From TrEMBL:
GO terms for biological process: intracellular sterol transport; regulation of plasma membrane sterol distribution; sphingolipid metabolic process; sterol metabolic process. Pfam families: Arv1. It is a multi-pass membrane protein. This is Protein ARV. Belongs to the ARV1 family. Keywords: Endoplasmic reticulum, Lipid metabolism, Lipid transport, Membrane, Transmembrane, Transmembrane helix, Transport. It is found in: Endoplasmic reticulum membrane.
Amino acid sequence: GRDMLSRAMGALGAYRCIECNKEASELYRDYQRGVLRISICKSCQKPVDKYIEYDPVIILINAILCKAQAYRHILFNTKINIHGKLCIFCLLCEAYLRWLQLQDSSQSTNPDDLIRYAKEWDFYRMFGIASLEQTSFLVGIFMTLRWMRPEILKTKSDFILLLKALLLSSYGKLLLIPAVIWEHDYTPLCLAFIKVFVLISNSQAIRVTLNLNRMLPWLAIFFGLILENGVVCLFQKMGWDV
């Protein structure tokens, strides 16, 4: 099954060299009896994907360090389909953080069922707001890239691949929960660092997916943040706590 999938992806040119980003027909060659040989890229003469021999923990560490090679391995040479679930879980983390901050600002000891229902509704509202802000951020990125470089997002598969890359690269939001659980005087600073880390990861994901320089991804993220903050201002004018 694994060999059949490997041959099918190779036939479609789905593999990429993690060093030079050129297409590759295969990642390795199986000589049977457990003997594998990593393929060499015809363009840069380096191993197409050295990470196929690495432990997942090492790959994760390299991804945390925002190494382009690790991102290419994850995005192009593996079949990871957790981006949807990861996005929902990250939004739940962000909604929980906002909901907790809202409860801290409005302490109430009234055990009435109506109060408990209102608090539950507040969580759903925070989840909806976080979802709209995330959507606005992504829309801002896509609009900027489409406007600046229309040739890089020509097909539906290009959009889907970039969306998948952006959702996967937002995994840093999972750190919001530990930052809140182990609350400390430096928690606001930790939350700011988490936000910066997520943006850096998003930038690297755009750069690797579309094979761009460093400037354009950051420009797209900047306009994404502008649109996201515009949505926040709209909610604040409506009198909602965000």
